[in-house]
Amino acid sequence: MADVDIPRDRLSGPLRRGSVRKNVAAIHISGKLTLLQRKLSNVLLLNAYDELITRATHSIDARTLCMMVGYNSNDMDTLREALRSLVETVAEWDMLDAKGRQEWGVSSMLAHARLRGGVCDYAYSPALAEKLHDPKVFALINLNIQRRFTSGHGLALYENCYRFTRTGSTGWWPLELFRRLMGVDGSSYYESFKHLNAKIIKPAVAEVNRTSNIVVTPEFEKRGRSITGIRFLIRENPQLAMFDIDDDEGVRTSQVYRQLVDRGVGDRLARQWIAEHGAAYVAEKLAYVAGRRGVAAPVRYLSAAIAGDYKAPEAVPAPAPSPEAGEAARLRAEADLAERRRAEARDAEKAARAARFRAVEAVASRRNPTQRDADRRLFLGRLDDELDREDFRRFGWSSALNARAIFAFWEELEPDIFAAQPGN
């Protein structure tokens, strides 16, 4: 079983309600979730969080859901399977309540899920919703960090460690519990600590430290010659502190925040966008969307504009220096025009590159799981530089570092993949 956290950062205090209450804030959810399913559960919770205990049912556009998970695909079969797994997943908690009484409970992770008309409707049981909404019980994780993970075990370790950031340690976990948290309980192979350490602990620790805003260090508890327990020391990763989200009330009083909320963006998502991109950038995208006519889903379009850095086309004024302006003015006007044209060319190149990435993602997503796995293995085998290989492992077919190699690879597999694009 594994703790589930949702994408938002620094919104909750320590998950212990008192320094001596060591067993509070323990919500465990089946660790056998895939990486996609784990990310999906976090995004659904982020979407519902503001109205978690005031509304029985929540909804989100299915394509927006896929985009936020980082699964850029129209493969609804995969999304259905992921939702089905969450309905079949058991959430269990065992903690002290506000009066110090022991409380144990169990619930399915989702009470129901439904896809209809391009919209995903879903619900939590009232008891679980109450626990998930309590900031002292449940830590929130930044979506931008979640998207960087490529391993389910790495994300599971991060979720289980992040909630203890302020205390600096997870405390000791028996190895049996740790195996459940990582979803490998019941496997005779991982009963061996040697295998558990080599295949689960070391790779997961490496990914957390490389990918997230915390650094974890494992320590082991011995009884005789046997390892019986594990804990993780936790400190902030200064290199990735940019992902931390400011929780000051000043954000909520800003004009950009109010504009986002007025347009239907949730509190946490609004603050996340401002923290990740800056108020000026978000204001620019708000203005861009406001200037577009006939937008059927403004929040989804705004999300795409922020992610894709949409810009309004600028008119290029013809230089018309007066005779009195002199040669210097004429040269400046020509230089400005040339720079604008270079900028337009760069923007066009970026747009064409983005279109090629979308074409690759569309074709790759239509292939069956066996083919997708074979494609990735074949492409990795062509990369000689370990930096290139690592970037592809992290970002897949969206790897900017391997753009030329990716486009060439897919043109070999699908000769007409880019035929419909301008300039081809």
Automatic annotation (TrEMBL):
- One Pfam family of this protein, by short name? Rep3_C
Q: Which residues form the Initiator Rep protein WH1 domain?
A: 20-161
Gene Ontology molecular function: any one: DNA-directed DNA polymerase activity
Disulfide bond as UniProt keyword: no
Question: What processes in GO biological process is this protein linked to?
Answer: DNA replication initiation
Name the source's superkingdom: Bacteria
InterPro entries, alphabetically?
Initiator_Rep_WH1, WH-like_DNA-bd_sf, WH_DNA-bd_sf
List keywords of the entry alphabetically.
Plasmid
Q: Which family does it belong to?
A: Belongs to the initiator RepB protein family.
Q: What is this protein called?
A: Replication initiation protein
Q: What species is given as this protein's source?
A: Paroceanicella profunda
